[in-house]
User: Fold these one by one.
Assistant:
Number 1:
Amino acid sequence: MQLASIFSITSSAPFFTILSIVSIGIGLCLIIFGLVKQKNNKKSTLATCCIVFGLLVIITHTIQIIARTI
């Protein structure tokens, strides 16, 4: 089995678009988790990190989807 045949599925554009959409969903989950955690604990570093990381994931993958469609 050749190495190129294994990775030929992952080189398609629809795969990366689906991966970006799933990553945006994960980013939304991180933001929701951070907001719930911050509501329960007033000053939580974990909650702030989750919110910031979730926002960064959403922003970067949205830019990737826009760049792929242009």
Note: The mean pLDDT is 86.
Number 2:
Amino acid sequence: MSIWSRGDRRGRVEEALLMLKGQGIIDGLEILPAHEPRPYRVLLPAGLVHMDEDEASMFALGAVVGAFGDIARHRA
């Protein structure tokens, strides 16, 4: 079973960014057509960041670890 509804890498990156937006970790998101050199526009408190697919995938991983790492390590 997979948590991803789309099987290609671009689709998984987009879903990860949409999840971050839905959780309120990022303030906004715009995804441009794939032929753009940096199709991901992520709005953060520091401003608007333009990213390509590789940058967006690493950003998503870092944002999830930063946001949920302490919760995952919490022991009851």
Note: Residues 3-74 form one domain.
